[in-house]
C-alpha cells in the first residue's frame, strides 16, 4: 500500500495495542488441572470460545468471559470457581501496552486523530487507554455500540459516530478474525496488520503488514 493519509486511524485495542494476557492467566490458573503438554490446546480452545461468545447479540463483557471459561472447562472436564472465571474480567484494566506502542503512536498522534473500537466494557477501557501514553480522539466500546467485533454493526457504529465513510479511515489490528476481515466486508480498503504472532498473515484481504506499531508512521507518510 502506498502512503495514505486518512482522516482517522482506527485501532483494535486488546492484542494490538494492549498486551492481552488471557492465555497467560489461563496457563497459570489451570496449571494444576491441565497437563503441561496439553496447555497450548486448552488456551486455543479458550480463545475459540471467547470468539464464539461475541458473535451473537451484545451482552456484558463479564458474561462473555465467564461463559468462555465455563465452556472451555466443560469441554476439558475440569472444575472452575466463580472467582476464577471472574478474575479475567477484573484483570483486564490492569494490562498495559506492548513495548513498541507508546513510541510508535507518538510519531502520529499529533498529526492524525486516533480512534479505538474495543470489545470492552466502558468501565474497563479507559484504564487501558490511559496506559498507552498518547491522546485518542475517540474511544468506542462494544458496550456503547451494542455489538462486538467481528460483527459489522460494530464498524457501522464507529463510522457513523465519526461521521465518515470507509474510505476515510485506516484500520489497524493484529487480528484478521476480529477486525481485518470484517473491515474488508465494510469496504475499508486501507488496513494494517500488526503481526504479533497470534494469527497468520492473510494478504488476500488487502492489507499492509508491519511487525509493530513503530512501522505505522511510514504507512501514513510520516517517516
Automatic annotation (TrEMBL):
SUPFAM superfamilies the UniProt entry points to: HAD-like
Gene3D superfamilies, per database record: 1.10.150.750, HAD superfamily/HAD-like
Entry-linked InterPro entries: 2-HAD, HAD-like_sf, HAD-SF_hydro_IA, HAD_sf, S-2-haloacid_dehalogenase
Example GO molecular function: hydrolase activity, acting on acid halide bonds, in C-halide compounds
One Pfam family cited in the UniProt record for this chain: Hydrolase
Keyword entries, A-Z: Hydrolase
The keyword Ubl conjugation is assigned to this record: no
NCBIfam families: HAD-SF-IA-v2, HAD_type_II
UniProt name for this protein: 2-haloacid dehalogenase
Lineage: Bacteria, Pseudomonadati, Pseudomonadota, Gammaproteobacteria, Pseudomonadales
Amino acid at each position: 500500500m502506498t502512503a495514505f493519509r486518512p482522516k482517522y486511524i482506527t485501532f483494535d485495542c486488546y492484542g494490538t495495542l494492549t498486551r492481552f494476557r488471557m492465555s497467560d492467566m489461563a496457563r497459570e490458573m489451570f496449571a494444576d488441572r491441565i497437563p503441561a503438554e496439553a496447555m497450548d490446546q486448552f488456551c486455543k480452545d479458550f480463545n475459540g470460545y471467547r470468539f464464539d461468545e461475541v458473535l451473537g447479540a451484545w451482552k456484558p463483557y463479564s458474561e462473555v468471559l465467564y461463559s468462555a471459561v465455563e465452556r472451555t472447562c466443560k469441554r476439558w472436564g475440569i472444575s472452575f470457581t466463580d472467582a476464577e472465571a471472574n478474575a479475567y474480567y477484573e484483570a483486564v484494566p490492569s494490562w498495559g501496552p506492548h513495548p513498541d506502542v507508546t513510541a510508535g503512536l507518538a510519531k502520529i498522534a499529533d498529526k492524525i486523530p486516533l480512534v479505538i473500537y474495543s470489545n470492552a466494557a466502558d468501565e474497563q477501557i479507559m484504564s487501558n487507554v490511559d496506559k498507552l501514553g498518547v491522546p485518542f480522539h475517540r474511544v468506542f466500546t462494544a458496550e456503547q455500540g451494542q455489538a462486538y467485533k467481528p460483527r459489522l454493526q460494530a464498524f457501522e457504529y464507529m463510522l457513523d459516530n465519526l461521521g465518515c465513510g470507509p474510505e476515510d479511515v485506516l484500520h489497524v489490528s493484529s487480528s484478521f478474525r476480529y477486525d481485518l476481515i470484517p473491515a474488508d466486508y465494510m469496504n475499508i480498503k486501507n488496513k494494517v496488520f500488526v503481526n504479533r504472532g497470534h494469527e497468520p498473515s492473510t494478504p488476500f484481504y488487502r492489507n499492509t503488514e508491519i511487525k509493530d506499531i513503530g512501522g505505522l508512521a511510514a504507512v501514513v507518510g510520516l517517516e
